[in-house]
Amino acid sequence: MRLPALLCAGTLAASGIAAGQSLTAYAADSATPAPPRVEARSEDLLAVGIVNADRMSIHLSRLIDNAPVRDAAVTVVLRGVGHATTAEADGSYSLKDKDLTLPGAAVVEFQIAGQGARETLKGTLQVAGAAGASEDKNSVRQMGWWVLNFAVCIGFLLLLSRRRKAADG
């Protein structure tokens, strides 16, 4: 009777280790994802837009030397609507609009006018769905299997304990 109890205890220990690893992986999966971003380039310019909530910070630079472009008028066309940007002190441009929070893919067009030249850069912005919605359903299913495994092993140990007490008494 000692061997089955040891086997179940070993299974319980292995299950505990695996469940701990599963919880760690689940916590890592639910960590805050990187903010949505869009990149668009032409032969001369690179525009990178990073979205935080309803605000996009746009970094515009020359490809040849990676120098920021500070003296341009930047207009962002998002979901078919043009939005003027605001020049920031650090050389970037910013845009605030509620359409930046809408989930899904959106074509973004950066229209740059400066020093007698006009350029249009196009990219795609991918905004994730609602926060808190788990995209990995398998981690919940795996956690359920570990809970079930624990319950079966504990039940088996209780059954063995009761049988042993009945045989001794």
Notes on the protein architecture:
A hairpin with a 2-residue loop joins β8 and β9 (117-127). α1 (2-29) packs antiparallel against α2. A 5-stranded antiparallel sheet has the order 1-2-3-7-6, with no helix packed on it. Strands 5-4-8-9 form a 4-stranded antiparallel sheet, with no helix packed on it. It has 2 helices and 9 strands; from the N terminus they run αβββββββββα. The protein has helices at 2-29, 137-168, and strands at 37-41, 45-52, 55-62, 73-78, 81-84, 86-87, 93-96, 104-114, 117-127. The chain folds into 2 domains: 2-30 and 134-168; 37-127, Immunoglobulin-like (Sandwich), CATH 2.60.40. The model has no long low-confidence stretch (mean pLDDT 81). It is of the alpha+beta class.
Count of individual domains: 2
Stretches where pLDDT is under 50 for at least 5 consecutive residues are none
**In the CATH hierarchy, what is the architecture of the largest domain at level 2?**
Sandwich
Rg: 28 Å
Structural class: alpha+beta
Which strand order does the major sheet show? 1-2-3-7-6
Query: Could you give the count of β-strands?
Result: 9
Q: Helix and strand layout, with pairings?
A:
Blueprint: H1 2-29, E1 37-41, E2 45-52, E3 55-62, E4 73-78, E5 81-84, E6 86-87, E7 93-96, E8 104-114, E9 117-127, H2 137-168
Antiparallel strand pairs: 1-2, 2-3, 3-7, 4-5, 4-8, 6-7, 8-9
Helix pairs in contact: 1-2
Provide a concise account of the structure shown.
Helices cover 36% and strands 35% of the residues.
Main attributes of the structure:
Immunoglobulin-like; 2 helices; alpha+beta; 5-stranded antiparallel sheet; 2 domains
